[in-house]
Amino acid sequence: xxxxxxxxxxxxxxxxxxxxxxxxxRKARFWDRIARKYAADPIADLPGYEATLQRVQGxxxxxxxxxxxxxxxxxTALRLAPHTRRLLATDVSAEMxxxxxxxxxxxxxxxxGFAVADADAPVFGQGSWDAVLAFNLLHLVDDLDHxxxxxxxxxxxxxxxxxxxxCVKEMNPLVPRLALPLMRAIGKAPHVLCxxxxxxxxxxxxxxxxxxxxxxHGTKGKDIRxxxxxxKPQA
Length: 235
Fold this sequence. Notes:
seven-stranded mixed beta sheet, Rossmann fold, alpha/beta, single chain, 8 helices, 41% helix, globular
């Protein structure tokens, strides 16, 4: 078996690799620890969730190869897989993926698979996907620009990036400034990026994506989760 580093990592300094590995391990540990509770928690806004699912189903087809990053325990992937040719759903947490595979075993689908992978660096084939999905994820990545760049590289020309993201900057300022740092300090919250919807759209455009739709599907009070459909231009 070859022990050479992948090409993308071969030119990275060892100290940078060590730092990235440590950050990845910390992130995985947090989500592994809360995975079972996460799986048991009810969806806070079920009508809003169903609206998003219907919208995404309308954008996919049984001719599409689809990658989902940050899939959690796989509930959304199970709902969307029948509308694709194949769907590979990934998450940084091995425990989340274990739960997702339990669900898949109880509801087998040949076109659906689950794998452990970091959303900051999806590696399952560059230019291989007709759509990349990221739901309630982009505010949780380590580096927004790096994550979007990885998505763009994963997409085929003309492919869609479909995301739904909590824009933490749109919350009460006390939440990102005080509540989240305190919760993170005691291990009750993960690392969270603070941006609003225009800043997220600007990041997508900065990486060459064309934003086709910006929507809010929430049905309960102020909806900070923005749903965005963006397309990679044809070559």
